[in-house]
């Protein structure tokens, strides 16, 4: 469909969304289109094979007419999505947001006159606190990872964990780090985040030294045999994959005794939570994380309040007495 392709190109070229994000938008919108084509009578029907010269579209969505959609079509689609008990509300909300964004784009371009989805709301989702690793466990883990190794994969994997925890960057941001993104002896890192926005993050001295040692190991072992400039490489000298980074984090956190979630995003949450617990201003944390709004950062204050409650209950004489009486 011409309008859909234009929208996806807009997301990639102007909004600077990642290829994975653009693909997710496309999948969600096509799913909605196919639902409308099969479940509503207003959309064009299949062309008649017997009609002379009737064009046959390879993909049914080519027949989709966005001007024929009504508010009830989206509501019916949402009901269809929520009928799957295994589909989470957050997934449904993502799909709704994708279609609503597409229709905002169509209205801005003059393809449609009225947006049928203005009054449609997303589903309510339970608020969940971000998972993070407690400070004592993270302290032991980072101390063990600082020991030098002559094994390339060991040094690389250790640096993956250390850099995630030291900077709070996203998985895609870490994967795309280039050596020349660092400055001042690896103590400053320029990161390209969502929407291709750049921010500069300080890197603590011990991790900066680990980066220098890691790059020296690459040179000594002739890992990088081309002009590739990415920081994190495979043993063959190629850029490491997202899935491999995820496996590295999962394996090391599990080995360290971390229960529950053990992903790169958990380390991002851990970075933010520990800074907030240490008294760092929330707006500074917002800037370090690359959040466009303060609201996205404020979720970490709930973790800090819970931590404060635990400390209070353990230390305050009156709280301890109340616990004993119970």
Characterize the structure shown.
By secondary structure, the chain is mainly α. It has two domains: 107 residues, DNA polymerase, domain 1, CATH 1.10.150; 179 residues, hpI Integrase, Chain A (Orthogonal Bundle). Helix content is 55%, strand content 4%. It has a three-stranded antiparallel beta sheet with strand order 1-2-3, with no helix packed on it. α2 crosses α4, α6 runs antiparallel to α8 and α6 crosses α10. The longest helix is centred in the first third of the chain and has 21 residues. It starts with a helix and ends with a helix.
Give the CATH topology of the largest domain: hpI Integrase, Chain A
Proportion of β residues? under 5%
Q: Assign the structural class, choosing from mainly alpha, mainly beta, alpha/beta, alpha+beta, or little secondary structure.
A: mainly alpha
Number of domains: 2
CATH architectural arrangement of the largest domain: Orthogonal Bundle
> SSE order, as H and E?
HHHHHHHEEEHHHHHHH
Instruction: Give average pLDDT, whole number.
Output: 83
The geometry reads as elongated
Largest sheet: 3 strands, antiparallel
Question: Briefly, what is this?
Answer:
The protein has 326 residues and is mostly helical. 55% of the residues lie in helices and 4% in strands.
Give a topology summary.
Blueprint: H1 2-13, H2 19-39, H3 71-82, H4 89-108, H5 135-145, H6 152-167, H7 171-175, E1 182-183, E2 188-192, E3 198-202, H8 205-220, H9 242-255, H10 264-277, H11 282-289, H12 294-297, H13 299-315, H14 317-325
């Amino acid at each position: 469909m011409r309008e859909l392709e234009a929208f996806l190109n807009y997301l990639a070229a102007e909004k600077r969304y990642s290829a994975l994000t653009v693909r997710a938008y496309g999948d969600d919108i096509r799913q909605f289109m196919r639902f409308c084509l099969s479940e509503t009578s207003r959309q064009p029907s299949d062309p008649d094979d017997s009609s002379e010269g009737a064009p046959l579209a390879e993909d049914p969505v080519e027949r989709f007419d966005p001007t024929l959609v009504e508010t009830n079509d989206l509501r019916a689609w949402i009901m269809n999505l929520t009928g799957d008990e295994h589909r989470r509300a957050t997934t449904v909300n993502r799909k709704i947001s994708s279609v609503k964004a597409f229709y905002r784009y169509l209205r801005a371009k003059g393809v449609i006159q009225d947006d049928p989805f203005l009054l449609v709301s997303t589903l309510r989702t339970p608020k969940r606190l971000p998972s993070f690793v407690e400070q004592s466990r993270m302290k032991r883990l980072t101390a063990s990872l600082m020991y030098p190794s002559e094994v390339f994969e060991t040094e690389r994997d250790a640096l993956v964990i250390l850099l995630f925890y030291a900077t709070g960057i996203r998985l895609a941001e870490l994967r795309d780090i280039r050596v020349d993104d660092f400055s001042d002896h690896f103590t400053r890192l320029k990161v390209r985040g969502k929407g291709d926005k750049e921010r500069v993050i300080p890197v603590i001295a011990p991790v900066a030294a680990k980066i220098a040692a890691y790059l020296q190991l690459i040179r000594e072992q002739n890992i990088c045999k081309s002009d590739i400039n990415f920081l994190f490489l495979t043993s063959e000298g190629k850029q490491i994959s997202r899935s491999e980074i995820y496996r590295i984090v999962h394996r090391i956190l599990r080995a360290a005794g971390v229960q529950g979630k053990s992903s790169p995003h958990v380390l991002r949450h851990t970075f933010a939570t520990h800074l907030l617990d240490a008294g760092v201003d929330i707006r500074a944390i917002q800037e370090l994380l690359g959040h466009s709004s303060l609201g996205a950062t404020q979720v970490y204050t709930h973790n800090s309040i819970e931590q404060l409650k635990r400390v209070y209950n353990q230390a305050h004489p009156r709280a301890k007495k109340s616990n004993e009486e119970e």
